[in-house]
Design the sequence.
């Protein structure tokens, strides 16, 4: 309350809060309007331009692609055709490599999720000698780059007969995916209330039943996030596949690279193949989008 020359001016709590707002807060409040949203939508559309261009190029004939840019299709929609996809699916090397990609990605993702979940629960809630030191050792493996292990593991796989096989690629991806999986899930499982686990133990639940009935349902968002990360990493991998696969076990990324002729003139094969290789992980991501967001935001609100 302010008194001046017989007049009384009351300062309300809302005005006090506004007076205390920083300049940054005021700018952020003004920028949260519709104009900023329109700007962000425009930026998002620009990010989608390469994907749209790849899709349109995959639906054009080779002679049309060599004659003009992909954007010309909007003035000549008659150029759109599925002939390139038909030829691609008739290519035995491409279809076989696509199946190899599935055979590599699905087991590598499932193994990382299952083993990482069990190990994360053990490090979070089970007592055993040297638990913290073992966990520190697992976390330290996160800093080991993949390139360092390529030659030693290739020599090891060659001695045991796994080099050039799908099983060898699965084991490599599983081994390098587990440190991150254990680190992520252990930290997530550790946030589960202890009282909930103790109540389940009092009801006679063992460790395995406790893990399956209590921890797994509560850890669904984190497990889904891990599965998406691992799936995308393995599906889009090319470096490991180039080193550890042969002609009969190559995934789609390597098969498309081998299809490239001089100066990449076979765009009629590369465009539909690249789009098919891209759309499958996109479909997986959007299918589990809600679980992924929940896993990323887990722990942000107590």
Sequence:
């Amino acid at each position: 309350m302010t008194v001046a020359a017989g007049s009384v001016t009351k300062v309300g709590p809302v005005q006090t809060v506004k007076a205390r707002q920083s300049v940054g807060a005021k700018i952020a409040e003004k920028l949260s309007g519709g104009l900023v949203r329109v700007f962000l939508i425009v930026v998002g559309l620009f990010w989608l331009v390469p994907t749209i261009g790849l899709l349109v190029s995959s639906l054009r004939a080779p002679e049309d692609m060599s004659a003009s840019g992909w954007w010309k299709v909007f003035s000549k929609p008659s150029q759109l055709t599925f002939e390139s996809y038909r030829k691609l699916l008739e290519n035995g090397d491409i279809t076989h490599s696509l199946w190899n990609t599935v055979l590599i990605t699905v087991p590598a993702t499932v193994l990382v999720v299952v083993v990482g979940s069990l190990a994360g629960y053990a490090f979070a809630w089970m007592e055993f000698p040297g638990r913290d030191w073992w966990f520190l050792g697992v976390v330290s493996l996160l800093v080991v780059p993949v390139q360092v292990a390529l030659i030693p593991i290739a020599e090891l796989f060659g001695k045991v007969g796994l080099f050039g096989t799908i099983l060898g690629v699965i084991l490599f991806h599983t081994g390098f995916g587990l440190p991150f999986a254990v680190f992520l899930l252990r930290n997530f499982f550790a946030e589960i209330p202890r009282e909930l686990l103790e109540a389940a133990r009092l009801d006679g639940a063992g460790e395995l039943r406790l893990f399956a009935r209590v921890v797994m349902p509560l850890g669904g968002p984190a497990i889904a996030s891990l599965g998406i990360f691992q799936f995308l990493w393995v599906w889009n991998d090319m470096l490991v596949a180039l080193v550890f696969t042969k002609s009969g076990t190559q995934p789609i990324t390597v098969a498309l690279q081998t299809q490239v002729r001089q100066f990449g003139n076979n765009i009629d094969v590369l465009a539909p193949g690249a789009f098919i290789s891209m759309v499958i992980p996109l479909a997986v991501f959007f299918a589990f989008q809600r679980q992924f967001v929940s896993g990323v935001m887990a722990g942000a609100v107590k």
In short: The first strand starts at residue 2 and ends at 4. The first helix runs from residue 13 to 20.
